[in-house]
Amino acid sequence: MKIGILISGRGSNMVALVDAVKRGEIPNSEIAVVISDKPEAVGLAKAAERGVESVVIERSGRTREEHDAEIISELSKRGVELVCLAGYMRLLSAEFIRSFPNRIVNIHPSLLPSFPGLDAQKQAFEHGVKITGCTVHLVDENLDNGAIILQKAVEVRDDDTADTLSARILEQEHAAYVEAVRQVASGRLSIEGRKTTFNAEIAEYAET
Prior knowledge:
Elements: E1 2-7, H1 12-22, E2 30-36, H2 42-49, E3 54-56, H3 64-77, E4 82-85, H4 94-99, E5 104-108, H5 120-127, E6 131-138, E7 148-155, H6 162-185, E8 189-192, E9 195-198, H7 200-207
Parallel strand pairs: 1-2, 1-4, 2-3, 4-5
Antiparallel strand pairs: 5-6, 6-7, 8-9
Helix pairs in contact: 1-6, 5-6
């Protein structure tokens, strides 16, 4: 499976996916391209260090639809089958969603549907929850709303700050994203409405 990754910043989840593919933890897959909407994104250098092609497609002065159309074109030229958002800070257009139906995934630093949107870790910390975490989900036209693929829980400690909590959530994000993409790339994911399951029979066939 050819994977395209969209970033806007440091790209730590992108690095986790790239390194997992290189180690063979996500079998029968390759990272075809990393695309950033920001030329100053730190993740671009990290992609280059790992020998992954990167492309900058700036959004300034263009509508979301125009910007997305160019990204779709670059992904399609490389035969991308799965799009992974890794800190990509722009909502996707309806046309983008239609171009990759049930083939766009995102990682969010909370246990959705709780605390969608920006600063989810801070939201959870300030709300006083005892358990939070991260969610890998399919992307639809609404913010942090698509069907949930995988979640990992993180306990909120009494001595936590928003920063220490965010750091521990990030560790779990890396593991969760790799596992979720591994399942998708192996053809294991089944989707019925909002319910997703991992098909064991397909898993056994894929590994033989």
